[in-house]
Design a protein that fits this description.
The chain has 182 residues and is of the alpha+beta class. It contains 3 helices and 12 strands; from the N terminus they run αβββββββββαββαβ.
Length: 182
């Protein structure tokens, strides 16, 4: 479970600095593809003991606090998220909740699947997917620290992820989150 927790805190750095494995300057979420799943709301944990607190904002979106528990210190990362329906898949469009002045908000994407009472989460952005972007030149991107940052429109991003981004090859290793009360 280190993958999700570590990735979540790396994501904080991604969103704060604009660097990382695969981010976009445009959101995936729009009025036509956003859905809401009340079963995501609550407190979740991973095998490392990190806690993910998901709240309903009342506007078909979520606030997520990722609390890393490493034994000696607690760190919290504040995210906002929208759940996007792409075909039969659901993807969280994540970005920083506390944006700094003059910063560009970055978006990262996580496929979410219910597995019984648990959630399987997988970041979209494997090396294979990055290679697809670099070798095809599409969607539009620029390189930052050896990783593409997508600059294409939300529509182009949606088309690309619908075609390539939801296959197993495009996804990072899965992490399982279980309800905190279990």
């Amino acid at each position: 479970m280190k993958i999700f927790c570590s990735t979540a805190f790396v994501l904080g750095a991604i969103l704060a600095t604009g660097c990382g494995k695969l981010t976009s300057v445009e959101p995936l979420a729009n009025k036509q593809n956003v859905v809401f799943d009340a079963t995501l709301v609550g407190q979740w944990t991973d095998e490392e003991g990190s806690i993910y607190i998901v709240r309903d904002t009342g506007s078909q979106s979520y606030e997520i606090d990722c609390v890393n528990k490493d034994g000696s210190r607690d760190e919290t990362m504040a995210l906002k998220a929208s759940l996007v329906q792409l075909g039969d898949q659901r993807v969280l469009d994540l970005s920083a909740r506390n944006e700094a002045a003059f910063s560009i908000t970055g978006h990262a994407f996580v496929r979410v699947v219910h597995v019984g009472d648990n959630l399987e989460v997988r970041f979209i952005g494997s090396d294979w997917l990055q290679d697809q972007i670099i070798h095809s030149g599409s969607p539009a991107y620029f390189m930052h620290e050896k990783h593409p940052v997508i600059t294409a429109s939300s529509g182009e991003l949606q088309a690309f992820l619908s075609t390539f981004g939801l296959s197993d090859a495009a996804l990072e290793e899965p992490a399982i989150l279980r309800p905190l009360d279990q």
